[in-house]
Every structure is written in structure tokens, then in C-alpha cells.
């Protein structure tokens, strides 16, 4: 197994790489530093350590899929897929959770090799479904990757401050149920409106456009209110999920395999299933408007840090 200081140093490099403000949102630094303060250590390493405590054969929920108009965006499902493959190689049993709108994309990105569950958009029904899933699977941990999180008024929003509540399955209930049971929760986000970002809600309200007040009738802002135990902030959530996978592989002495070529394969599967870039709205091999070549370079750098 790799020496601890080597893992710690590489995890720090992965954290800094993934959180670089490629999109020039001018909020990444504030969100990253707030998460760092709340988590109390390198974000991807803290997340990986929580996952490394799970026993072989344990179930793990990976919650993903961010709805746009009537499709799912390309940020989230690839990161969830890489996490799922990494966890399975380490002897765990990952299952993916989403909603009906995003289900085709989530199933496509893992090629039906994992269980995929869908939670209802109706609150009372979703709460019951979440309880049944937690009781049935008894997961050792939950991870949310670029999944909408409701605000303090129970409403979901995109970054423009528009409501998504009529499209989003209420997966916040899974995090709330897990926290009542003492099950570790991990989240990956990039804008503050994602499930788990309630850990830094006040920072999101202060620094993110529409964070404190949205454009829909609820007026509660886009800041997600449900917290995670560990929150990983990245320029795109896929990158954050990759750093968790890479760091977990380092901790366990396993090979981290996700590179630029595999990234394109995942994105191609998503496009065939109807997914689009969440910023441009285009059916393209891009994530959050980041050019393909830049995205591939970041993926290759993550691979290199975890492999060299």
C-alpha cells in the first residue's frame, strides 16, 4: 500500500486541480474554501476515507442526474459511473439512484451493469420510496454527484434561479434518512444548488448569483439546504467524483483506470441516450461548456497524478 504522505500529497494535488475555476464563475474559490473549513481536510481524501471504511460486500448508493428541460445533463452520470466501477473493483456493491427523467442516461452510462433505482417527483411518495430503499439495501454510504438539492423551502432550481421542482425526484429524502440512521453521506457539487451543498449554505447564499433569492415564486434562492458529511467542490462535478475514485484507488493500492479515451466513451453513451451539455444545451461531447480537449486534459491529469 502506498505511503500515507504520498497519498496525502497526491490527494491535495487532485483537490486543487479539480477545483480550478475553469469556467470563471468567480465563486469556486469561496465554495471550495468553505467546504475545506467545514470538512476539516483535503476534500477528496476525506470522502475516500469514508468509503474505505465500508466492508466488502456492502451496498453503496450513488445518486446522480441533473434534469434540464426534458433531458439529463452530461455532468454527473460519468462521475457516478467511474465511482461505481471503482467501488465494485474494491468489493463493494454500488447501486445508482436517480429519477424517471434522468433514468435513461444513468442506465446508459453504466451499460445496465448496476442496479438503477428511480425516486418519484411527488414528495410523500418519494419519502416512502426513500425509506424502502434504505431499508432494503442497508447502504454503508451514500454519494451524490451533481444531483439537485432542495432549498430551505423544499424547491429545486437551476443556476439561473428557475424552478425544477416539477421534474426532480425528491432524493433529498435519502440523505435525510441516511443521516437519521448514522450512514455517512458524501456529495459532489460545483454551483451550490446540488444535494449536499447545505453544508455550506450560507456561503452559497452570499457568493453565488441567485443563491439567496431565486427567480421563481418561492423566493428562497437556489442554495441547497440538505447537508452532507463530506462535500467535494469542483469546477465540474465529474472531476470531483474522479478525484474521489482516484484517491480511493490510492488508499487501497488499486489501479485507477479512467483516462481521456474512457471519458469520451462515457460521454458518447450519454449523448445516445439523449443527454446534453448543461451549460450550452447542445448534444456535444462537452461538460458544462468546457471544450472537449480541456475536459480530456483534466481527466488525463487526474489519471496521471493517481498513476505515476
- Radius of gyration from the alpha-carbon trace, in angstroms: 17 Å
Structural domains: how many:
1
What percent strand?
Answer: 5-15%
What is the fold-level CATH name, i.e. the topology? inorganic pyrophosphatase (n-terminal core)
- Tell me the series of helices and strands, N- to C-terminal: HHHEHEHEHEHEHEHHH
Number of strands: 6
Helical stretch count?
Answer: 11
Q: What are the low-pLDDT stretches, counting only 5+ consecutive residues below 50? A: none
The CATH architecture can be named as: Alpha-Beta Complex
Q: How would a crystallographer describe the biggest sheet?
A: 6 strands, parallel
Per CATH, the superfamily is TON_0340
The CATH C-level class name: Alpha Beta
Work out the helicity level. Answer: 40-55%
Strand order of the largest sheet: 3-2-1-4-5-6
Based on the model shown, name its key terms.
single chain; 308 residues; alpha/beta; inorganic pyrophosphatase (n-terminal core); six-stranded parallel β-sheet
Description:
The protein has helices spanning 4-18, 28-39, 43-52, 77-89, 103-109, 123-137, 172-181, 201-207, 237-252, 260-272, 292-307, and strands spanning 59-64, 93-98, 116-118, 141-145, 185-189, 230-233. With 308 residues, it is an alpha/beta fold. The chain has one domain: inorganic pyrophosphatase (n-terminal core). Strands 3-2-1-4-5-6 form a 6-stranded parallel beta sheet, sandwiched between helices. α4 links the parallel β1 (59-64) and β2.
Amino acid at each position: 500500500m502506498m505511503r500515507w504522505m504520498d497519498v496525502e500529497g497526491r490527494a491535495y494535488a487532485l483537490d486543487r486541480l479539480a477545483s480550478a475555476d475553469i469556467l470563471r464563475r468567480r465563486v469556486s474559490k469561496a465554495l471550495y474554501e468553505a467546504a475545506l473549513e467545514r470538512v476539516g481536510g483535503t476534500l477528496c481524501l476525506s470522502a475516500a476515507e469514508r468509503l474505505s471504511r465500508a466492508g466488502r460486500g456492502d451496498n453503496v448508493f450513488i445518486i446522480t442526474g441533473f434534469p434540464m428541460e426534458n433531458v439529463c445533463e452530461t455532468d454527473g452520470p460519468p462521475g457516478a459511473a467511474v465511482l461505481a466501477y471503482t467501488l465494485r473493483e474494491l468489493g463493494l456493491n454500488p447501486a445508482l439512484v436517480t429519477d424517471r427523467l434522468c433514468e435513461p442516461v444513468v442506465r446508459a452510462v453504466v451499460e445496465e451493469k448496476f442496479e438503477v433505482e428511480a425516486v418519484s417527483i411527488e414528495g410523500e411518495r418519494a419519502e416512502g420510496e426513500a425509506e424502502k430503499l434504505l431499508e432494503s439495501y442497508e447502504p454503508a454510504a451514500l454519494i451524490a454527484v451533481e444531483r439537485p438539492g432542495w432549498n430551505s423551502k423544499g424547491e429545486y432550481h437551476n443556476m439561473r434561479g428557475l424552478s425544477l421542482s416539477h421534474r426532480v425526484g425528491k432524493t433529498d429524502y435519502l440523505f435525510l434518512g441516511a443521516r437519521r440512521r448514522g450512514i455517512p453521506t458524501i456529495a459532489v457539487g460545483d454551483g451550490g444548488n446540488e444535494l449536499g451543498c447545505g453544508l455550506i449554505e450560507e456561503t452559497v447564499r452570499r457568493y453565488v448569483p441567485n443563491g439567496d433569492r431565486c427567480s421563481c415564486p418561492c423566493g428562497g434562492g437556489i442554495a441547497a439546504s440538505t447537508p452532507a458529511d463530506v462535500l467535494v467542490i469542483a469546477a465540474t462535478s465529474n472531476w470531483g467524483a474522479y478525484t474521489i475514485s482516484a484517491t480511493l484507488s490510492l488508499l487501497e493500492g488499486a489501479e485507477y483506470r479512467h483516462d481521456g479515451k474512457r471519458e469520451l466513451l462515457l460521454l458518447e453513451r450519454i449523448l445516445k441516450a439523449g443527454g446534453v451539455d448543461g451549460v450550452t444545451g447542445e448534444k456535444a461531447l462537452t461538460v458544462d461548456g468546457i471544450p472537449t480537449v480541456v475536459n480530456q486534459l483534466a481527466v488525463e491529469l487526474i489519471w496521471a497524478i493517481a498513476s505515476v
